[in-house]
Amino acid sequence: MEWMTDVATLSGLRLSRSPLKLEGIESIYFRGPSHVGERVSLRSSVNRTFSGNRFEVGVRVEGYTVGGETRHINSAFFTFQLEDQSITLPQLLLETPVEKERAANATARHYLWLDRMAIQFEERQVSLSSENAVS
């Protein structure tokens, strides 16, 4: 999991080119085990930028043996925020259907996070709607 955080941080630094802080890990999905002797591949992408200089980075871990099939081991979604609020994040260009789906799912996770913060700190009720439902 530390490697996943490192890879997510590197993707965030490449996007922002400025210091950032990890705000939270939105979710981690464990799909299967890794085995002794397997190679591990970590891939990350910035899924979405949000207001307040926040953005989400998704990380996927795959395991494989030499000459063998690649298996999905786990995935995680990290939310970062820039330390310098005067910097504006670049807008992401969503070109493929997969990129658009990742951005939509990131938006849904972000709305859920905002709702959790509202419940935790403002003590108000939040109702489930199509905006905060993850597909």
From TrEMBL:
<feature type="domain" description="HotDog ACOT-type">
    <location>
        <begin position="1"/>
        <end position="86"/>
    </location>
</feature>
<dbReference type="InterPro" id="IPR033120">
    <property type="entry name" value="HOTDOG_ACOT"/>
</dbReference>
<dbReference type="InterPro" id="IPR040170">
    <property type="entry name" value="Cytosol_ACT"/>
</dbReference>
<dbReference type="InterPro" id="IPR029069">
    <property type="entry name" value="HotDog_dom_sf"/>
</dbReference>
<dbReference type="GO" id="GO:0005829">
    <property type="term" value="C:cytosol"/>
</dbReference>
<dbReference type="GO" id="GO:0052816">
    <property type="term" value="F:long-chain fatty acyl-CoA hydrolase activity"/>
</dbReference>
<keyword id="KW-0378">Hydrolase</keyword>
<protein>
    <submittedName>
        <fullName>Acyl-coenzyme A thioesterase 11</fullName>
    </submittedName>
</protein>
<dbReference type="GO" id="GO:0006637">
    <property type="term" value="P:acyl-CoA metabolic process"/>
</dbReference>
